[in-house]
Amino acid sequence: MTSYKRTLITSALPYANGPVHIGHLAGVYVPADIYARYLRLKNEEVLLIGGSDEHGVPITLKAKNEGVTPQDIVDKYHGMIKDSFERFGISFDVYSRTSSKIHHETAAGFFKKLYDEGKFVEQTSEQYYDEENKQFLADRYIVGTCPKCSFEKAYGDQCESCGTSLSPTELINPKSMISGNTPVLKETKHWYLPLDQYEPWLKEWILEGHKEWKSNVYGQCKSWIDSGLNPRAVTRDLNWGVPVPIDEAEGKVLYVWFDAPIGYISATKELTPDWEKWWKDEETKMLHFIGKDNIVFHCIIFPTMLKAEGSYNLPENVPANEFLNLEGDKISTSRNWAVWLHEYLEEFPGKEDVLKYTLTANAPETKDNDFTWKDFQARNNNELVAVLGNFVNRALVLTQKYYNGEVPALGELNEVDQATLAEIGNLKTEVEKSLDNYRFREALKLAMDLARLGNKYLADEEPWKVIKTNPERVKTVMNICLQITANLTIMLKPFLPFSMDKLCGFINFDKLDWSELGRTDLLPAGHQTNKPELLFEKIEDATIEAQVQKLLDTKKANEVAEAVAKPAKENCTFDDFMKMDIRTATILEAEPVAKTKKLMKILVDTGIDKRTVVSGIAEYYKAEEIIGKQVSVLVNLEPRKLRGIESQGMILMAEDADGTLKFVSPESAVKNGSEVR
Ligand SMILES: [Zn+2]
Fold first, then answer.
1. Spatial distance between the Cα atoms of 109 and 259, rounded to a whole number of angstroms
2. What is the pTM (predicted TM-score) of this model?
């Protein structure tokens, strides 16, 4: 294994067309942050790089839909994303953006170098063109049926249903998303990265050289390489992005997947003039933290770009995660099916670590996983509160009670004491092993085992009983509990940074250094600790129910939005229709029918007479608010008895997709008894 002097950690650039949600956090930012914090605790040289990806077609589509400029869209979301990351405590050394000048220069320069050295192949091809809007259609502007799985809303570059990467001409029945028309094919010239030429090298570098990569990552790379690589366009006909820096490429920009990963380089440049050390010195280890949808770009395309350029390092590992689902459904920005970070921060102030903990404990490291609010509550109440919080609180409160907060001296150690202290070192070794192999959920579980160890030790030794008979012995027990507490602050700092800072304050401890971890004398006898507060608090059922209700409301809104009108009924004759006598009428009186939920007894003036109608609207209208309303009544419907009341006709209602009923009323007042036809 190569020994490295420093580590460059990149985290996938979130796309600036929406806020960040728990899927992004669990897949990329929480593990990247844990790893960066871990290396910093080890006093290693490390950079955590982040930034917003601000180019690409979805942003232009969103701008078009909202009637604003693409710059407006990215300004809004970049600000929002950056702010929520900061508040959540993702410890970026730099958080940049790809619309910045430095990035445009860096990306254009990168392209120009490859262009000048003849690393691209030029190809004129036929691409879809929208004749009505006189523009070439980017892949994302074309929808059609997926040839692999028959999903009807596949995009020109990818089917989001089966995940297959597509080209627009593979789509069955393609349509322009701008005009809705069927696009035509027209010639255009583009520059391609000849991935096929790099296939032998990729085979050797990944398939032979990186067998240690996570099996989901290695497997995806292998399947891509085995199915044969094709040249991939790095330019696009679009007016939003980094302009292609050559004269004959007027009106073309760099393909977002070419420019976005160069964003990691630009961000490093923005941070330090010494940026080349981080990208080109072979003693720097580079890691890409990403979600599984980015594997091909970070394992095959970006490394090929770097290889073609020639002066850059290649990633040493790409610990990509699978997807996190939410309450059994795929997280979706467009369907608002997500827990949004900025909303979480407002609704759960001071509970940043609880979300980090839950997302790590349940991280989708080897397979897709599910976030549920019930699990979130259980992780908080049963683990953070009942295990970690409970242990440190008892240790610190007893220290206050018996010794006014002063650490007592260690006496003679029995076997249990020795085994307990030895276990701290064992756990350190195991946590390190897991972290070094990017197994963060396992590392967190092992780190929490230290709190479990403390709890068990305290429960077995029962200092609150022993204090009455053997106060000397209690000093040793409490000293050991306090050493465990101090070790916890170091071991859990990468996972629970805010809470461990708080705990450090309780015990007056600031030697947060991984090399100190495992020592059994972190707090010397006589060291003064402070009065503790609660480290975590219980989350009540009502809080969780409110979040679940929010999701149910979203689900309902989506159902309404996605509802399709029922097909038309069979034709009827004009005479059939004319048999119905529909009149305008005014509601004079209304009262709910006793012992029913839905029924309302209504007196209407039909112009012909005043009559009683029973209507099933009590769930949607209050009696007092409908009096005086003009409605439409079918007056020649056979009378029928409902709950003992004779209903003489029917008030016409429109039923919405969610079942809600609304009156069908004339749009301005007409005389009662007017015929509706
Ligand atoms: Zn598909």
1. 11
2. 0.85
CA of 261 to the centre of ligand 1 (A): 26
Q: What is the CA radius of gyration of the chain?
A: 33
Q: pLDDT tens, 426-485?
A: 999 999 999 999 999 999 999 999 999 999 999 999 999 999 999 999 999 999 999 999
Backbone torsions φ then ψ of 648, nearest 5 degrees: -105, 70
* Residue pair 152/145 in contact by the 8 Å Cβ criterion: yes
Task: Give the 3-state secondary structure of residue 279.
Answer: helix
Contact status, residue 503 vs residue 427, Cβ threshold 8 Å:
no
Instruction: Work out the angle at residue 427's Cα, subtended by the Cα atoms of residues 423 and 430, and round it to the nearest 5 degrees.
Output: 140
| Residues, CB within 5 angstroms of ligand 1 (ion) | 146, 148-149, 151, 159, 161-162
Cα–Cα distance measured from residue 287 to residue 9, given in angstroms and rounded to the nearest whole number: 5
Residue 521 CA, ligand 1 centroid: distance in Å: 59
Q: Please enumerate, as own/partner, the contacts of 71-79 that have beta carbons within 8 Å and a separation of 24 or more.
A: 71/99, 73/16, 73/17, 74/16, 74/17, 74/99, 77/16, 77/17, 77/18, 77/19, 77/52, 78/16, 78/52, 78/54
Q: How far apart are CA 126 and CA 118, in angstroms?
A: 23
Q: What is the mean pLDDT of residues 29-36?
A: 98
Residue 157 CA, ligand 1 centroid: distance in Å? 11
Centroid of ligand 1 to alpha carbon of 58 (angstroms): 19
Q: Are strands 94-97 and 45-52 parallel, antiparallel or unpaired?
A: parallel
Report the C-alpha gap between 124 and 308 in whole angstroms: 22
